[in-house]
Amino acid sequence: MKKVIHAIGVIITALLLFSCSDTVKDEEVPVIDMSVTDAFPQNCVTVYRGESFTFKARFTDNIELGSYSIEMHNNFDHHTHSTSVTECDMENIKSAVNPFLFLSQYTIPAGLTEYVATTTIDIPAGVDTGDYHFMLRVTDQSGWQTFEGISLKIADRK
Distance between CA atoms of 33 and 56, rounded to whole angstroms? Predict the structure, then answer.
């Protein structure tokens, strides 16, 4: 009986020792910083069809960044995703004929806790002008995600 109790004690001790690890549990979401120099787009800006603009933002995470994605879609029905306290002037509600849609995902190089992302986005000449949303998501290696919703307009250059 002593041997059985001793064996159970050894097993429990081993399980306790091996179940503890030095890995840090990531409990923090990554951060999107739109205040970095030349960050773009900012809420309520106008971009122009037939032209391109350069997206720029800074991402940080306490352990390791993973990826980011950009989505740009029309807001002709005035739905909302905005994370800004600033409200933009809106055009009248309208139906889409040839709306601009941009969807893309980007991998952040491994091991980074800070990354300044830049991407050129081309706005085709024939897309509908009006209100749009620029959706930005950054995900860290643990799967935590942060979201930024920016309102902007596509217009014709005057």
Answer: 10
11 in any annotated domain = no
Query: 125: domain CATH number?
Result: 2.60.40.2550
- 136 within 8 A of 148, measured Cβ to Cβ: yes
**Left (φ > 0), alpha (ψ -120 to 50) or beta: where does 126 sit?**
alpha
Full domain range(s) for residue 83: 26-155
Instruction: Kindly provide the residue ranges of all beta strands, DSSP E only, lying in 6-122, ordered along the sequence.
Output: 31-33, 45-48, 52-60, 65-74, 102-107, 114-122
- Mean pLDDT, the chain cut into blocks of 10 residues (158 residues total): 61 57 81 97 97 98 98 93 77 97 98 98 98 97 96 95
pTM score, whole prediction: 0.83
